[in-house]
Amino acid sequence: WNRKLEPETAAVMSWIKSYPFVLSANLHGGSLVANYPYDDNRSQTNGIPNPTPDDDVFKMLAKVYSNVSFFFFFEMPHKRNSNLYRSSLRARAAKMARSQESSVHAELRRQEQAERHAALRADETPSQSQERLEDQATCHTSMRAAEKLLQTHLRLEEQAKRQRALIATETLLQTQIQLDVQAERQAALRATETPHQTQLRLDEQAERQRALRATETLYQTQLHLD
């Protein structure tokens, strides 16, 4: 709606029309922000939203980028000595170490984690166990309620990938132990959840089933029906 376009703006517009693409990003100097369409409006008045049909996707991408960007969260000097900053550094270091470890080291790390968790579970009282399960259920419920459809799909795909990797490497005894632990955990969660949490869980299960049905082949559908 500008009456006169700058030459570089007109060139970029022509380029976009000539080479259509799904998604793009560009870096620019100035304020530390993550811009997404449209950050302007016809009246050119600040504070007036002008969202695109893909507004949810753009917001999700901007949040993902800003959440992993060091300068978005830690540019201010007073944040550099905060617990959040130190926790982020430890998390980044742990993630880097995990990306470089071998499958043997990864398995040893998971076993050590399982042993530590088992020791903590053995020392806790029934009330502490109940409180932990309730906190986990509340945390999971709030996370599921806040995520977008794309985030849900990515989470389910990641869960399925992890499950396939674990199942491919575990022994028959490990499989049975895993099933017993899952059954015990599910029973404990069912016993403590509220009617609202039960409904959310059932809705999530139905959503997962629909996602699986939408991606399965005709042969897989026939096997499922048989």
TrEMBL record:
It comes from the Eukaryota. Residues 104-124 have a biased composition (Basic and acidic residues). This is Peptidase M14 domain-containing protein. SUPFAM superfamilies: Zn-dependent exopeptidases. Pfam families: Peptidase_M14. GO terms for biological process: peptide metabolic process; protein processing. Residues 1-126 form the Peptidase M14 domain. The keyword Metal-binding applies. The active site is at 101 (proton donor/acceptor). GO terms for molecular function: metallocarboxypeptidase activity; zinc ion binding. Belongs to the peptidase M14 family. Keywords: Carboxypeptidase, Hydrolase, Metal-binding, Protease, Zinc. Residues 97-133 are annotated as: Disordered. Its cofactor is Zn(2+). One of its GO terms (cellular component) is extracellular space.
